[in-house]
Write a structure and sequence with these properties.
Blueprint: H1 2-11, H2 27-52, E1 55-62, E2 70-79, E3 88-93, E4 98-99, E5 105-112, E6 115-122, H3 138-146, E7 150-160, E8 164-169, H4 177-184, E9 193-200, H5 203-212, E10 224-226, E11 235-250, E12 256-271, E13 277-283, E14 286-293, H6 297-334
Parallel strand pairs: 11-13, 11-14
Antiparallel strand pairs: 1-14, 2-7, 2-9, 3-4, 3-8, 5-6, 5-7, 8-13, 9-10, 11-12
Helix pairs in contact: 2-6, 3-4
GO cellular component, one term: membrane
Protein name: Endoplasmic reticulum vesicle transporter C-terminal domain-containing protein
Main location: membrane
Length: about 350
């Protein structure tokens, strides 16, 4: 009974075996076998590297407000000749919001000759309304101008997710600036500056994205330097035009990060009014998504099988052609047909 079943199963065998005494090794077959093995090893290593490596894909779709109704703006800007005591950071947007001397979570550092001499931390997320007049120490500001002090602002502000601008100026001190100018014997403000860093999104997310992804334009304004050239009472205004693109990053583990890429252009114009450095931003309605992924193990297995089968099939065809050619030549030689 068992023998009959085995006999029927053997009829299904498509891999028929030849007895060892009916097979014959050849030199050509040995060379082809060695070459085939080398090719298989090289292709296997290449496919293994592709399986291990992380690939990236991207897509675009209409923004559905993922990431909230507000945007965090990270700042680190040095104003080389603009004292901290009269520097304010103001925010406006098309919804009518206008906050003067907004402080968010900022550090103002008094700098002199490129060195920090003191710093103050400001944490009022609501800022000051337009009519509020910040107090000022005239003696200290006069001394700051005399010693050519500057100011570095670092930290972040929160803005609405609509087009608008934030700008650095002395607008919050407009009511007493004429006194400041008279006491300090200056005609206008010098807003020469260096942008150490500007980005949109959570700093922790941005740091992780930079480590894991090589995609996106997250901080194109970093290390930008601008020098003002005031002429008498005419100051210089700086304007940056920023196009913000909501961006989602998904790493290979499935973690999602919501930040914003941006591009920027700038220009400078002379002005008879109070100089300022404007950062005007507009938001794209399209979201970009970057996705990391790895090749599946089943796909890797299929590729390996294809490599093995393909190489062995081609090697077998080549070996058969060589063997038949050699046999044909030998027959002609034995029959004296080869000169």
């Amino acid at each position: 009974m068992i023998g009959g079943v085995q006999s029927r199963l053997r009829k299904l065998d498509i891999y028929r075996k030849l007895p060892a005494d009916l097979t014959e090794p050849t030199t050509a077959g040995a060379l082809i076998s060695v070459i085939s093995t080398i090719v298989i090893v090289i292709l296997f290593i290449t496919e293994l590297q592709a399986y291990i490596e992380v690939d990236n894909s991207s897509e675009m779709f209409v923004d559905i407000n993922r990431g909230g109704e507000q945007i965090r703006v990270n700042l680190d800007i040095e104003f080389h000749k603009f004292p901290c005591d009269i520097l304010s950071l103001d925010v406006q947007d098309i919804m009518g919001s206008h906050v003067v001397n907004v402080e968010g979570r900022l550090i103002k550092k008094r700098i002199k000759n490129g060195k920090v001499i003191s710093e103050e931390v400001h944490s009022n997320h609501e800022g000051h309304e337009h009519h509020n007049q910040p107090s000022i120490d005239f003696a200290r500001i006069e001394q700051a101008f005399k010693e050519k002090e500057g100011c570095q602002i670092a930290g972040y502000i929160i803005v609405n997710k609509v087009p608008g601008n934030f700008h650095v100026s002395a607008h919050a001190f407009g009511g007493i600036l004429h006194q400041v100018f008279q006491r300090s014997q200056i005609q206008t403000l010098d807003l020469s500056h260096t942008i150490n860093h500007i980005s949109f999104g959570e700093e922790d997310d941005l740091m992780k994205i930079k480590k894991q992804f090589q995609k996106g334009v997250l901080n194109p304004l970093d290390n930008t330097k601008k020098v003002a050239q005031p002429q008498g009472g005419t100051g210089m205004m700086f304007q940056y035009y920023i196009s913000v693109v909501p961006t989602t990053y998904v790493d290979v583990s499935g973690n999602e990060y919501y930040v914003h890429q941006f591009t920027a252009n700038s220009n400078e114009v002379l002005t008879d009014h109070l100089p300022a450095a404007y950062f005007r931003y507009d938001l794209s309605p399209v979201t970009v998504k970057f996705l990391q992924y790895r090749e599946s193990f089943l796909h890797f297995l299929v590729q390996i099988c294809a490599i093995l089968g393909g190489v062995f099939t081609i090697a077998s065809i080549v070996d058969g052609m060589i063997h038949k050619s050699v046999v044909a030549l030998l027959k002609k030689y034995e029959m004296g047909k080869l000169s």
